[in-house]
Amino acid sequence: MSLRVGLISELVLNGSHQSQWLDANGYRSCFCIGQGTVAATWIIQAKLPDESIVDVANYAPDGEPLASLLFKAGSGKYCTTNAMCGLPIRFVASVPQPGAKLWAIFKA
Q: Which residues contact 69 (CB under 8 A, 6 or more apart)?
């Protein structure tokens, strides 16, 4: 079974830290890639129907626990399937990402 690209979203970071909410409903995976990023811990958050927000995934830069670079130029990374829960999701960086270009590619 091949996965097909369903949606490509450029992330717009509010205050260089937090992306807009993305509708991940109906997608099974999300591939993240970026340019001009700064090493950061990234948290993927989901919005519950009652509007409360929960963390569903956590990615830390190389050399730290949960080591990874979620938005690494030249080599993207798939999000954990835990983040693909059918709820709106957003990406939150621990440090500003000035000038970074980030994309989330959702596959059905």
A: 37, 39, 59, 61, 62, 77
Contact (Cβ atoms closer than 8 angstroms) between residue 72 and residue 19: no
Q: Of 32-36, 51-55, 71-75, which one has max mean pLDDT?
A: 51-55
- Give whole-number Cα distances, 39 to 11, 27, 96, in Å: 17, 27, 10
**Cα 53 to chain centroid, rounded:** 15
DSSP E strand boundaries for 1-108: 5-10, 22-23, 29-35, 42-47, 53-59, 77-78, 88-93, 101-107
Q: What is the pTM of this model?
A: 0.84
Question: CA 45 → CA 1, 38, 77, 88, 93, distances in Å?
Answer: 28, 20, 17, 8, 11
Q: How many CB atoms lie within 10 A of CB 15?
A: 7
